[in-house]
Specification:
alpha/beta; TIM Barrel; 2 domains; eight-stranded parallel beta barrel; two-stranded antiparallel ribbon; globular
């Protein structure tokens, strides 16, 4: 059976489960998670930008084998609410409900990992006050310590899910903590500094701020050389590299992959998955 056929069969089973009386969301996730992990080919470079905007946050990304998802978060009334803009928040869409609990169920059903033999990244893009939001996030992540990569002064213990804090980042608070259940999404100037990779394991930059090429025609040689050099420097420091705001262009995805860029972001899950599988 092809990968696409397997995913379609699983989706049919999941939809069947949704129609069965007495089977709640947790039960449906538990039934489907192990099967999903078995039939989907993981795509370690695939990153679901604004993942929460899809019809089924997290689940659509998992169905396509994505190993990284991004959620924008606002702290409101003590709750971590997931939305792109503040007026779009609703108490029904929380970080815990959309991501942390489903990930816990998935890992429990799939034998201790989101995908066998693969790590998984949850990028939390903080949109509200950095310190207050991180304090709430830290308290919430502690409830999932068995699931999350643990960062200590003496080293890192990788677990099923690695949480990275982006956007408004409480850098000093994270740097002072040991243990902690999250690390920082850095910026290109961090490649010039000496922060440990355990604090900044990922460096991200806006594509248009660094490159003019939009995926049409051939990539200019000078820009290609700069891209490869940024990847080399990040990897030499034990960091991953990501760009946001990249055009949804297969030629650009190919250049990112060829250069060794670690996370390739998209809002078009099926197109990127098909492209990466085809290459």
């Amino acid at each position: 059976m092809s990968g696409r056929a397997s995913r379609s069969l699983l989706l049919a089973v999941t939809l069947w489960g949704c129609s069965q009386p007495g089977l709640d969301d947790a039960g449906i996730a538990a039934v489907g998670s192990a099967s999903l992990a078995a039939v989907v080919t993981p795509q370690p470079r695939a990153h679901a930008h604004n993942d929460y905007a899809h019809p089924r946050p997290l689940l659509d990304a998992l169905e396509h084998g994505f190993c990284s998802v991004e959620a924008d978060v606002y702290l409101e009334g003590g709750a971590l609410l997931v939305a792109h803009l503040p007026f779009q928040t609703t108490p029904a869409r929380t970080l815990r409900g959309l991501y942390l609990e489903p990930l816990r169920r998935r890992v429990a059903a799939a034998g201790g990992r989101v995908y066998p033999g693969q790590g998984f990244t949850l990028l939390v893009d903080v949109k509200s006050d950095a310190e207050a939001t991180y304090a709430a996030l830290r308290a919430q992540l502690a409830d999932y310590a068995d699931l999350l990569t643990e960062f200590r002064a003496e080293g890192v213990e990788e677990r099923a899910v690695t949480v990275l804090v982006s956007g408004n980042r409480a850098r000093a608070a994270l740097a002072a903590e040991s243990p902690r259940w999250a690390a920082l999404d850095g910026r290109l100037p961090d490649l010039e500094g000496d922060a440990p990779s355990a604090l900044i394991p990922l460096v991200s930059a806006r594509w248009s701020a660094e490159f003019a090429w939009d995926g049409a025609g051939s990539m200019p040689e000078g820009e290609r050389a700069r891209l490869h050099e940024l990847v080399r420097r990040a990897h030499a420091q034990g960091r991953r590299l990501r760009f946001w705001g990249t055009p949804e262009a297969p030629a650009l995805w190919s250049e990112l992959r060829a250069a060794g860029v670690d996370l390739i972001g998209t809002d078009e899950l099926e197109r990127l998955r098909a492209h990466l599988e085809g290459e």
